[in-house]
Amino acid sequence: MKFTSTLLSTVLLTSFALAAPSSRSGLAGRLQRRGRTLQGSTLRSKESKNSKTTFNAATGNTSAVQYSENWSGAAITSPPTGQTFNAVSGKITVPTPSAPSGVASTDGDYAASAWVGIDGNTYSTAILQTGLDFTVSTSGAVSYSAWYEWYPDYAMDFDLTISAGDVISMYVNATTTTSGSATIENLTTGKTVTKSLTSTSALGGENAEWIVEDFEEGNSLIAFADFGNVTFTDCVAATAESSEGVSTATIMDIENTSNQVLTDKNLISDSSFQVSYTSILEQAMEAGGEGEGEVGKGTRVENEAVLQQLILVSSGGGRC
Ligand SMILES: *[C@@H]1O[C@H](CO)[C@@H](O)[C@H](O)[C@H]1NC(C)=O
Ligand SMILES: *[C@@H]1O[C@H](CO)[C@@H](O)[C@H](O)[C@H]1NC(C)=O
Ligand SMILES: *[C@@H]1O[C@H](CO)[C@@H](O)[C@H](O)[C@H]1NC(C)=O
Ligand SMILES: *[C@@H]1O[C@H](CO)[C@@H](O)[C@H](O)[C@H]1NC(C)=O
Ligand SMILES: *[C@@H]1O[C@H](CO)[C@@H](O)[C@H](O)[C@H]1NC(C)=O
């Protein structure tokens, strides 16, 4: 709407100098994704009829999972008293996305992002984040793109070739509230891409997060890919004086607007946890109360909706 040709060519030139838009979810997707995050200053969690708990092996505690339409993972909502987060890092193995059974995509693509960031959960006016998108088309073509973003500015692509199975580290560092850097390192080759950033939207240093996101493209959430598992390891949230892992984080799962919970969490330790995509079959089992030691209770209506999908999928020759 507001993209004047000057702005657009500036963006294009900048992008040309910095990064080659590499995949379908490259520059065009980035521009559209500009509005992909925050609305108001509310916590990302939504009201849910589902209720589930996650065992935290680091503390021995069991805590309630919060649900979000678009974020799954771990988010620390406040730093130690009197401090602010200035660096967040985590490592993942690049997953291979696939199209979920029985779920339609309006544009033919399924995708998700995995990223680390400072702010954007309860502190909502800025996020410094970096990560990668993984996309699969209905024909099965898989593509990846690595990006950095200081929301509300655009996300931009890093020039980095990514393949399934690569081990990558992601870092965001804030030098001040309005300057910092985003870095992605390929631990397979040691190749590192980094970008210094400044913004007029100051960070609060209030939140640290490690997220698998169903991101927005255009004005709606992209059809969520079956990403199998994304395991975050070496999770560190640092302040100038101390650092911590994910054991005090709020654990979030994605529940879509049809009340289907699409992810599951396994908190492995203070520095690592796994986000799993839950298939329609697993959703039905959870709703039927057969989750692995977890309290997974959908309402009767939701169970029926899941069963309907199962019937549709199996009668459609799907992979059930
Ligand atoms: C992400 O989810 C939150 C609530 O869970 C919602 O307020 C926000 O609008 C969602 N973002 C998008 C882009 O849908
Ligand atoms: C970013 O912070 C991490 C600590 O989380 C540190 O190891 C790394 O050196 C920092 N990188 C930069 C560029 O400041
Ligand atoms: C990492 O390096 C490997 C080996 O060269 C390469 O195949 C892969 O695409 C690289 N991945 C990233 C994220 O740079
Ligand atoms: C995901 O991890 C679980 C173990 O936590 C494993 O049982 C499952 O096979 C994995 N799925 C994929 C697609 O790798
Ligand atoms: C929610 O997820 C279920 C199961 O994956 C899917 O069938 C349904 O279409 C999704 N609903 C929306 C609104 O995306």
From TrEMBL:
<keyword id="KW-0732">Signal</keyword>
<dbReference type="InterPro" id="IPR013320">
    <property type="entry name" value="ConA-like_dom_sf"/>
</dbReference>
<dbReference type="GO" id="GO:0006508">
    <property type="term" value="P:proteolysis"/>
</dbReference>
<dbReference type="InterPro" id="IPR000250">
    <property type="entry name" value="Peptidase_G1"/>
</dbReference>
<feature type="signal peptide">
    <location>
        <begin position="1"/>
        <end position="19"/>
    </location>
</feature>
<dbReference type="InterPro" id="IPR038656">
    <property type="entry name" value="Peptidase_G1_sf"/>
</dbReference>
<protein>
    <recommendedName>
        <fullName>Concanavalin A-like lectin/glucanase</fullName>
    </recommendedName>
</protein>
<dbReference type="GO" id="GO:0070007">
    <property type="term" value="F:glutamic-type endopeptidase activity"/>
</dbReference>
<dbReference type="Pfam" id="PF01828">
    <property type="entry name" value="Peptidase_A4"/>
</dbReference>
<feature type="active site" description="Proton acceptor">
    <location>
        <position position="213"/>
    </location>
</feature>
<feature type="region of interest" description="Disordered">
    <location>
        <begin position="27"/>
        <end position="55"/>
    </location>
</feature>
